[in-house]
Specification:
This protein is mainly beta. It has a single domain (about 5-335), classed as Beta-galactosidase, Chain A, domain 5, CATH 2.70.98.10. The chain contains three helices and 25 strands. The radius of gyration is 19 Å and the shape is globular. The termini are far apart.
């Protein structure tokens, strides 16, 4: 790591939270439910204290919880099917995983018993000038309100996203993904991880509950963790800005809501023991629930270019102008729910 990770934490009547400088990542979060139980919905990667982690990309070294990705994804050489082309706007730094802000230490702003704020300055040759992030617990609820502000250096169109990553209970199918209304489900147009794909590629379905696999079967992709060793992605387009995870074995829901006009899709990252190399080591089980204006995580050149999602009317970029602050707000909360 280029610098030592620092952290800030705060507690309120309904929970506690921590934020780290690396990536500006939020986590862990503990919510106190009205019945007195404590629940911690966000994922913390298991290698955070491993000294070997310093060989990893910065974004992975202390991977945890939730953070913004500007731009979302990264440009890379990929073999993609017809209809996908990397002819959109790109720039120096477009190959950085999930953007500059995901891989550097943020600067602390105002931090007190009510809020934690951070800022991230981008390199001078980047279309983004800076990000600002404010994390505020709701004083009256087991909930956290988050604000992201983006300042552009010059006019541009970029894919952007949020990256909440949730822990899962160990029993297969014990957590139910409960999205709000959405239009369709899209599968990734290739292999997220060679040998670890599950879903039939480049397909669309009306429901997350019945998705075709590469082996010719169907699977209920709304029930996680999956029984198979899988590393794969599904994108839900036209979603109404809300999704919940019902932990049936633990009797609670984690809920995420956001501005649908900014993020018209949500990307589901099924990280289900599919990656065998270090640091994943076939042990990583988590679910990314990522509101996006992007074509999967395929980066600026593809998201701003010709792709099947944008051709169908799904926004895969956001337009930015210098001197105009882009502000988006979202909320993470928890509530009691039926067990079983």
């Amino acid at each position: 790591m280029s610098a030592q990770t620092t952290r800030r934490a705060l507690a309120w009547a309904h929970g506690s939270l921590a934020v780290q400088s690396l990536g500006g990542m939020l986590g862990p979060v503990l919510f106190l439910l009205p019945d007195g139980r404590q629940v911690s919905p966000l994922h913390i990667a298991p290698w955070g204290n491993d000294p070997e982690r310093e060989i990893l990309p910065d974004i992975l070294q202390e991977l945890r919880g939730e953070w913004p990705c500007v731009p979302f994804g990264s440009d890379a050489d990929r073999a993609l099917p017809a209809g996908w082309s990397a002819i959109g706007e790109s720039f120096d730094g477009a190959g950085v995983p999930h953007g500059h802000g995901s891989n550097v230490h943020w600067t602390w702003g105002d931090c007190d018993e009510r809020q934690i704020t951070l800022e991230c300055a981008y390199p001078g040759n980047h279309p983004v000038r800076s990000l600002r992030r404010r994390i505020e617990p709701d004083p009256n609820a087991a909930a956290i309100d988050i604000t992201l502000e983006i300042e552009a250096r010059w006019p541009c169109r970029l894919p952007i996203g949020l990256h909440p990553t949730f822990r899962l209970s160990p029993r297969p199918g014990s957590v139910v993904i409960e999205p709000g209304s959405y239009d369709r489900v899209w599968s990734f147009p290739g292999d997220v991880e060679p040998g670890a794909a599950l879903f039939a590629p480049s397909q669309q379905w009306p429901s997350l509950g019945k998705v075709d696999t590469r082996g010719g079967a169907t699977v209920d992709a709304a029930r996680v963790p999956l029984a198979e060793d899988v590393e794969d992605l599904l994108q839900l387009s036209g979603i109404d800005g809300s999704i919940a995870l019902h932990h049936r074995d633990e009797g609670f829901r984690a809920r995420l809501s956001w501005q649908k006009e900014h993020f018209p899709s949500v990307l589901l990252w099924y990280s289900n023991r599919g990656r065998k190399a270090y640091p994943w080591n076939g042990r990583h089980v988590a679910l990314g629930v990522e509101p996006i204006a992007s074509a999967f995580d395929l980066g600026p050149a593809i998201s701003a270019g010709v792709n099947p999602l944008s051709a169908s009317g799904v926004a895969t970029t956001i337009a930015f102008e210098p001197g105009q602050t882009f502000t988006t707000r979202y909320r993470l909360s928890a509530e009691a729910a039926p067990a079983g």
